[in-house]
Structures are given as structure tokens and as C-alpha cells.
Amino acid sequence: MNAGPVLPGRDDDPDRLYTITGGRSRAPENAFDLVTLIVAERQPAPGMQSEHVRILRMCEAPTAVVEVAAELSLPISVVRILLGDLLESGAVTARHPRFAPNKARLPDLDTLKQVLHGLQRL
Most buried in the list 11, 45, 64, 68, measured by CB within 10 Å? Predict the structure, then answer.
């Protein structure tokens, strides 16, 4: 009996997920949240797990954890474990927007007001 259409990320066999994660059920504490940007630091190596290879290729440009999970059609918890493996080996770096350098932050309100007044006088 067919249960209907299979939704992305919902067709994962528990045995497959167990195999992908090597039996682990938790990622490193606080390493990744949904908006953490992942950047590949090297190319995939021969013999590397296929999911790791796909992540490295996908993250040649900064890619959010949630985007990686969607592209792989895997649960976030599984993707966090895979990313933890790659982070530990130095294959990726994780950048969270809240840890951006101070110079990348927006200017203060007074500066924005001065710019606005200057533009209005033009």
C-alpha cells in the first residue's frame, strides 16, 4: 500500500541515518545553528564519505547550515553531525553572523542621521 508522496527529508530510513552518522546522535555542543555559515577550506579527498564530499563542494562559497540540510535532504541533526566531522578535521570553518568583526557592524545611529541629512540637502 502506497502512503502517498514522500516529502523531502522525511523519507530517511533510520538505518541509513545511523550509517551516515556512524551511530552518533549528537553534534558538538553549540557548534552550529541554522544560520551558521559553512565555508570549505579544502577539496574533497579520495575515499571521503559521499555526504562530506557533497558538503565540501556545496560550501565552496559560504552556505548556511539550513541550506546544506535542504540540499542534502537530511535532517538538521544529521547535518550538524556531518559538519562537526568536517570542522574537527579542518575541512570547513563555521562563521556565525553574531561573531562578525566589529568593523562589519552597522554604523551608529548618529552617523546614519548625518548621512540622511546630507543626502536631503543635495
Answer: 68
Contact between residue 63 and residue 114 where contact means Cβ atoms under 8 Å apart = no
pLDDT tens-digit map of 7-17: 444 445 666 66
Rounded-to-integer distance, Cα 89 and Cα 97, Å: 22
Provide the whole-model pTM. Answer: 0.64
